[in-house]
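With this grant's support, we have settled on a layout for protein records. A representative record follows, to show the layout.
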Amino acid sequence: MNRTLPPRVTTWLFRRFLPPAHREAIVGDLIEEYAIRSRSSAKLGVVWYWGQVCRSIAPLLWIRLRRERWMSTLSVAIAAYVAAGAIESAGIEAIAMLLGPYATAPSALSMIVGLATLISRIEGKWRIIHSHWSYLKPQVTGR
């Protein structure tokens, strides 16, 4: 391992979170500082470098999310994830109540998977019908 170059994985990770306009300058400064610190001890240089990168990732991620307006998308995704978990839990409870005291989690989950498959098939057929109707509607209604 070259003592003047920091770990590649750390540098790669750090580059992913930096804004492109400032990426080369910030990474270059960090590598220079690493080279100075690693002269006395390579291990301390690596620890320092990892520390700098790990402390920087959270603020850089927050800035990137705010700047690129991902917060609304991220909020919706988290809300959908939480809602799906709540629906799944409610579904398992409902099926467990239907199956009685001998219901197990695998049997409830297999019923949910079966229902989800059925719903997706119905939804697929509905999309086919809707696409055909959208095609035929002008001919039938004259619009």
Remarks:
- The chain has two domains: 8-67, 71-141.
- The chain has a mean pLDDT of 75.
- The first helix runs from residue 8 to 17.
- Helices lie at 8-17, 23-38, 42-67, 71-99, 105-141.
